[in-house]
Every structure is written in C-alpha cells, then in structure tokens.
C-alpha cells in the first residue's frame, strides 16, 4: 500500500500499528523511532524493521509518517523532521486532542505534505510496546481531521490504511473532534482520577477495606485511572478549554444529585437515575460495548 | 443446613440466592415472596419452591429469613412478618446500606430473633430474577454486621451459609460498613450517573457522536449508570450522611485537577495522574478485578 511507512513513537498505539502493518504487509519498508532507549531495544529484539535512533533518518523517504508520541513532544519531532519530509507524503498522528496540534503543524508551513490528523479510539489501560496488539484497531473507530483543501486522494489513502488495520473511519473537524472527545474520553478520565484519589487515602485506616470491597463500583474506575499519566497530562493541557467547560457542566449535574440527597428527594433521585439507563443500551446497540454483565469479566 | 429458608424479594440478588440454595441443597424447604406479580409468575414458572403471595406466610416457620428487597420496603416487610417470625430464627438482608436499617430493626424490639445484616458485594448492571445466577457470589465478599451480643453460633451459621454460596465473609460494624461502601460503591454510582447525564444531552447535535465514540472511556461509566434506579435512590437516602461527606472530598479532588488545567500546570497534573496508577495493581492483587486489558471484554 505504501512504499515506506515511518512510525515515530512506539508505545501501545505505535507498536500496535507496527504489528498490524507488518502482519498485513501494508508497506515495503517500515522505519521506527522512539526516544526511549528501552523501547528501541525492545523493537530491535522483537521486530525486523529499520530502527533509527535519529528521528529525521526514520522519516526520510517515507510516504506515510505516523506520529504516535505524547502531544507535548510533537513540536520537537516536527521541527526535527520538517526538512527531511518527502514531497507528496502523508503526515498523520494518533493523538487524542487535535486543535493545538493542528496550529503547530500549520505554523510549520510544510510544502506539499498532506497533514491529516488521525485518532484511533482504541487502547487499553496498559502502555509501552509490549502491551501492543495487531488487533487493537479492529472494529474500533478512527477519526480523521483535515483542512478542506486537502487532496481527496490523500484522504482516501489514509482512510484505506486505517480500514486495513480493521478500523471504521469517520471525518470530523479538528474543533468538533476535541469537543466530542472531551465528553467521551477526557471528562471520564478527569473523573476517574478524582474518584480514585478520593477513595484511596493512604493514611486512612480503611484503605485495605476500600481495595477489598472495590467490586461495588470503584474497581471499574481504577482501570481508566491507571492510564499513562504522561500522555494524559498533555491531553488535559491541549484540550483545556473544552475540558474545563464540560467539567463545569458535570459539576452542575453532580450538584443536582447532592441537593436531592440533602433534601432526601426520592422523586428527583429516581428521575436522575432513570435518565441514564437507556444510554447503556444505545452504546451496546452501536457496537461500542459488550452486553455481557460486568463487561463479561471473569 | 437450614430446615426452611425464606427469601423476601426475588430480583437479581434474591433469585441468585434462590438458585444457589437450590443447587447446593442448603434447605429442606424454600419459600419466596415478591411484591411484583410479574416476578411471582416468573418464580412459579422457573422454580419448584413455595411461592407465597402473603409475606408473613412466606416467613412462617423459617429458620433463615433473607430480605432482598429495596431498602425503602424494609419497614413494611418487617412490620408484616414481625409477629410470625419463629423463635430462634436468623433474620438477615442483602442491602447496600446498614445503619438506618439497623435502627428500624432495633425499634421493632424482636424477641429471640438473631438480626445479622448481610451485604454480598456482588451484582451486575442488570436487575430482575431472570438476570440472577447461582454463581453470582462465588469468590465475592459478603460483609456481615451485628450487635456485639449476638449469639456466636448464629453468626457462625450465617457465615457458613454465605461460604456455601461461594462468598468470602468479613464482619464489620454497621457504621464502618456504611462509610467504606460510600467510598467503594455509592460515590462511584453518584459520579457515574452525573457523568452520563453530562455527556449525553439529548438536545445536543453531537449526541450520536458521543454514543459512537464512547470507547474512549465513557462506556465504562454507563454500565454502573444503568443500575436499578429504585434500589439506588434508597441507598442514597439511607446513607446520605456518608455520601455527602465523600462527595465533598471528591469535589475537592476534582477542583485540584480543574485548577491544574487552568494553570496549565504539567507537574501537578502528572503528580495527580501518577498517584492513582498503583491502586489498580493493588485491586488486581487482591483478586478484585481481572488484569486482562479492558476487563477482557470482546
């Protein structure tokens, strides 16, 4: 499909792309770079691809460049690779926030490079290349964002690429992406981090009880709250405007519950708790979760 | 083990007890009652037990009476069965809050009845008798609470009963139970209901997008937010004091994140997000969740 694909950053997502590209033979040549020596050693040991300690070396002659590194590292990466990018190539990424990154790319003034942002809505609570899997993107959405003047054939190429990895592809503006993801992903992470910090107070004599009896609900939240801290602090800073807005709405919703509890208002509580029941059903019908009780976990 | 067991309320939990008691032959006779005609029809059709439309009839001569109904129905049930309870019998329940219920039982002034509260930390997001399973309690904790003067042999009998259902049993005071569960279960439910209400605004043009891209985190919360509304409004009213207290602590933790986002304080965000990572590991080590990525869901 591509002569050369270059993957910059090979953690959970980058290494999953690498595995899938190899498995499905989507490139003649693959080059990879990661700024961590440990990751580079892992890649050398486990893959027969071109591992480049120099990032601009990795992207040289590539037809598709995929940045799969924390958002805060984009600027440095882009400045390093800018002059060695091949004309006509597609530049993409896998980041969870788009608006700020898009500004950085636009400011670079790249010539004859098609910048199309990608966001595969896939992942697990684990990080690092050993956690990757070639089936990570199967049946998962991948959202693409690009300027209107982007060449249609380049957009089609990238859509096909993600489809080959098993993804269903949607196009969304940079702005809409960041708003929708602030609701579906960033708010849940903020909430999960807060709740785990509230429940687990290391000084509290009940700490062990809280761990033991976490199956009453808390355990579900600890999965998300164990996501990669480095990645997440970048997302919160990049998409701060949307996140602060939805956090305010969230606090208002929580205050409704607080007030209903204070007033022992059964009717209001019942109304609130009933309103959310059908959302689960809609998510299952949309193929976005299992209907097995308790996620089908053993 | 018991001559006669009576189960009052046969939804997810009650019917799971019924299935397990039958399967393991823990009683010579079993009688059941549910105030819903639909549930009674289901029980008649699927079980060969004594289905009593009259609750005091169901509990007559029972050696173990298990109330597995919403907390707000306890008072009426207890007043109805009070005079027909057998001397020397054990009265228990399966409720998620204990302090208020204990007051109700004490006020009844039962004579020669051993009141020992039970709380099996087990369940799913589904409700009703068809959702029950005989293995629901396997390897799950069950917390017992009783006054200090309770007869040791009665406590032992009830411990054995839950052990036979597959549970691991712990004893905890009514007060400690309600505090610990406010952290592990009631707070997570309040938060889940709030977040789903925030993310899904039926008037919002992005509603369908939010459903489609819920795999970024939101879908996890919709499971808990689809729990039985009737049961949960009772829990929030019964355990209001603890829940309001932990909700205040939670809001403080959330404000820390909000302020760090406002100030684009990478260091603080990294510190917050790093602090919760190891809790997941502790919960997995305690056997309270799977280490499979994404709960191992398909």
Say which CATH homologous superfamily of the largest domain in chain A is assigned. Answer: NAD(P)-binding Rossmann-like Domain
Q: Radius of gyration of chain A in whole Å, from Cα?
A: 21 Å
**Fraction in beta strands of chain A:** 5-15%
Decide which structural class fits the backbone of chain A. Answer: alpha/beta
Write out the strand line-up for the largest beta sheet of chain A, numbering strands in chain order. Answer: 3-2-1-4-5-6
Number of helix segments of chain A? 13
Q: Architecture of the largest domain in chain A in CATH?
A: 3-Layer(aba) Sandwich
**Oligomeric state, counting identical vs distinct chains:** homodimer
State the name of the first-level CATH class of the largest domain in chain A: Alpha Beta
Primary descriptors:
298 residues, 6-phosphogluconate dehydrogenase C-terminal fold, Rossmann fold, alpha/beta, 3-stranded mixed β-sheet, globular, homodimer
Short description:
Chain A is α/β, with parallel strands linked by helices and 298 residues long. Chain A has helices at residues 12-23, 37-46, 55-59, 74-81, 99-108, 152-164, 174-199, 207-212, 218-224, 229-238, 240-262, 266-275, 277-285, and strands at residues 2-8, 27-33, 50-51, 64-67, 90-93, 114-115, 117-120, 141-145, 168-171. In chain A, strand 8, helix 6 and strand 9 (168-171) form a beta-alpha-beta unit.
């Amino acid at each position: 499909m591509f002569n050369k694909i270059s993957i910059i950053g090979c953690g959970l997502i980058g290494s999953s792309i690498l595995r899938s590209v190899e498995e499905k033979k989507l490139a003649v040549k693959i080059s990879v770079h990661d700024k961590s020596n440990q990751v580079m050693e892992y890649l050398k040991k486990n893959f027969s691809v071109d591992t480049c300690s120099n990032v601009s070396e990795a992207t040289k002659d590539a037809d598709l460049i995929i940045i799969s590194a924390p958002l805060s590292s984009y600027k440095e990466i882009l400045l390093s690779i800018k002059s060695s990018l091949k004309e006509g190539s597609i530049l993409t990424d896998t980041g969870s926030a788009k608006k700020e990154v898009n500004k950085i790319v636009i400011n670079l003034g790249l010539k004859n490079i098609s910048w199309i942002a990608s966001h595969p809505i896939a992942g697990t609570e684990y990080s690092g290349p050993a956690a990757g899997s070639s089936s990570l993107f199967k049946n998962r959405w991948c959202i693409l964002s690009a300027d209107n003047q982007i060449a249609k054939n380049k957009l089609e190429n990238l859509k096909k690429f993600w489809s080959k990895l098993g993804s269903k592809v949607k196009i969304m503006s940079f702005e809409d992406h960041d708003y929708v993801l602030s609701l579906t992903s960033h708010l849940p992470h903020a909430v999960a981090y807060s709740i785990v910090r509230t429940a687990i107070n290391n000084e509290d004599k009940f700490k062990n009880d809280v761990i033991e009896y976490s199956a009453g609900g808390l355990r579900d939240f600890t999965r998300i709250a164990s996501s990669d801290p480095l990645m997440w602090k970048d997302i919160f800073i990049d998409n701060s405007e949307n996140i602060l807005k939805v956090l305010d709405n969230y606090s208002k919703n929580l205050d409704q519950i607080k007030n209903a509890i204070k007033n022992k208002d059964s009717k209001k509580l019942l109304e609130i708790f009933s309103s959310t029941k059908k959302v689960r059903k809609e998510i299952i019908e949309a193929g976005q979760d299992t209907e097995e009780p308790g996620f089908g976990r053993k």
